[in-house]
Amino acid sequence: MSDDAKRPVAIRAADVPPRAFRTNYPEPFASRMAGRDKRPLGDLFGLANFGVNITRLKPGGSSSIRHAHTKQDEFVYILEGEPTLVTNAGRTALKPGMCAGFKGGSGDAHHLVNETDQDVVYLEIGDRTDGDAVTYPDDDLAVVTVDGRRRMAHKDGTPY
Fold first, then answer.
1. 87 in a structural domain
2. Which tens digits make up the pLDDT trace of 35-69?
3. Residue 143 lies in a domain
4. Which CATH number goes with the domain that contains 57?
5. Which of 107, 117, 127, 130 has a Cα-to-Cα distance from 48 of 20 to 30 A?
6. pTM of the full structure
7. How far apart are CA 106 and CA 71, in angstroms?
């Protein structure tokens, strides 16, 4: 039986199991992702050109470390709750039905934070363009390639 034959035609997003690993970030950053629950929707259908996740942020949770991509575009659409979007332009309060997009190469570092007492649920969509690099302007964090594999390191290249 082919992989395509095993894929669902459709599924309720909330029934998709959470991603097995919480984060690629090393400590002290990994613990900042404790309030984040990602469910990979696109992978379930075998999508290869872009990823789609439905993500829940508990109160105090963060979508990621504030970052910018050199090539990959990202888009978020708020379904529930009222997160704060933090970008180079500052802080923007979001509500259900609002969306935001981040063009690869713009240098606009971004992330969502949940500073409320209610959960936030949003869709995140991003492309998978090869050769992407990620910068983290607020933290001593960098993505480096070692033996052909991407790894997290300090900005000076020292591994965590």
1. yes
2. 999 999 999 999 999 999 999 999 999 999 999 99
3. no
4. 2.60.120.10
5. 107
6. 0.91
7. 9
